[in-house]
Amino acid sequence: SYLEIIGPDEGQHRPEGGYWYGVENLAAARLVTWVASVEHVERVAAHAHGAGYNPGDVHQVFRETPDGDHLSWRLTMPTGAGDGLVPNLIEWDEGCPHPARTSPEGVELLQLRGYHPVPESIQPMLAALGVELELRVADTPRLVAILDSPYGPIELT
After folding, report:
1. 3-state DSSP: the chain helix, strand, coil percent, rounded to 5?
2. How far is CA 37 from the centre of its chain?
3. What tens-digit pLDDT sequence spans the chain (157 residues)?
4. Is pTM, for the whole model, over 0.70?
5. Counting Cβ atoms within 10 Å, is residue 140 exposed (0-12), middle (13-18) or buried (19+)?
6. List of residues 6+ apart from 23 with CB closer than 8 A
């Protein structure tokens, strides 16, 4: 698995159209959503449409790393459905070096779970994508990631 935490970079200009996932509007740092890696993203997205869930259009995305590597992937863009508990889909392009190969090691994702006032409203969307997420009842929607670190378990919310 691969964990990437993104946020606004005050040292760079704001991207045209704003930051993905609306992170510039957050009052405090928090987990906003997650992305599920799939094979044949277009096929998975089409299946989800057939099952009654719109995962968003598939877009080709790319960037250069500081080391000069070219990363490219296809990604469904956020639709706003599912209160951040329903993932976007990603498929890394063939021959592209996956960022997990060059990322720092030492932290492992042990568990990802979601909380929602009506978890049964989220489950059909997850099923349409063919992904699983443990859902629990709570007053407000949120994600929780449990990480194993050199300092012991860490909970991100």
Report:
1. 20, 30, 50
2. 9
3. 567 777 777 777 777 877 777 778 888 888 999 999 999 999 999 999 999 999 999 999 998 888 888 899 999 987 888 999 999 999 999 888 777 777 778 888 899 999 999 999 999 999 999 999 999 999 999 999 999 999 999 999 9
4. yes
5. exposed
6. 6, 7, 8, 32
Residue 21 CB partners (closer than 8 Å, separation 6+):
6, 32, 33, 78
d(CA 93, CA 143): 28
Q: Residue 55 has which token pair?
A: 């995962």
Phi, psi of 149 (to 5 degrees): -130, 170
**Beta-strand pair 108-116/58-64:** unpaired
User: Would you say 23 and 12 are in contact if contact means Cβ atoms under 8 Å apart?
Assistant: no
d(CA 22, CA 6): 11
